[in-house]
Sequence to fold (347 residues):
Amino acid sequence: MPSRTVLVTGATGLVGTSVVRKLCEAGYRVQAMVRPHSKRGPLEGLKVEFVEGDLASVATLSDVVRDAEVVVHSAAHIGDWGPAEQYRAINVVALEHLLTAAMQTGKLDRWIQISSLGVYPAQHHYGTDETTPPDLTGLDGYTRTKAEAEVLIRHHIDAQGLQAVILRPGFIYGPGERHSIPRVMEKLEDGSMKFIGSGDKLLNNTYVGNLADAVLLAIENEAAIGETFNIRDERLVTRVEYINTIADYMDKPHPKHVPEWLARLLVGPIERIAKARGATEAPLLTGARIKFMTLNLDYSIAKAKRVLGYKPQVDFREGIRATLDDLTGKQPSPTSPDSVAAESSAN
Fold:
């Protein structure tokens, strides 16, 4: 099995870097798709082949997938603000071009689609499993187009026999995270961080090393073909634990709480004003952020455990410390994010 050639898109991102490391350790021939001017530092020292291409440039994609027998598609346009068309151009249209090019080589025997638990309806979830269909009317361009991408993959599975696996991780964190957690740290630093409501609802936290383990299982397990799997940590944490753990690390006061009803009352006008002004960055309050801070996001991973043999190794306590140490430079990034798993299992 490890003799196969695996192409990883988004290879220098949080997920891609962890997946590349995991695949290299497993002995695969690994190709990393990068844009011509991408910083390749996160992959320095790894036995990896760089293939240059850009999802925004269709003409580059045939060369990118020329040798790929397995594609792990982790590249995406991410965020919670902006026109859906911006997200659709990369998350759906470019995906279809890349997939078509890969299938035309005649070499492709597995496609791993990194989707998101955000494709489920924006409501409370208490053990929701994969029988619930994705919501094509998502709160924002990202979740909507990730759901559309799943529909596209499912069409190719059903109509053309694509051997694909769809993985749905939740809120991904780990060494190399440079988006959500830094924003929390900035708000804790200036005192503007607030809980919306009680903060006692569960977050769908997913350590990036646990996700990388699931990717490897999806590549190697024949029973995974054609299936969709929720992926998250074994233990979910509340918003209070999530935010206060970061505050304690920074030696900052725990944030105060604002009523959920007030945030929901204000979010509509705030979003409308921001859109009317043509804001390119999300305002302080958005529907997506209320979802992130208030909804119970507990999704079942029973299927992943049963079919894939998925066993998330890293708990939030270890994973968030590794993330924060990496962000603050208190210790060098580990050779592999999964070194945290090795340490925790040895204790």
About this structure: Confidence is low (pLDDT under 50) at residues 333-347. The domain at 5-176+206-233+298-314 is CATH 3.40.50.720 (Rossmann fold).
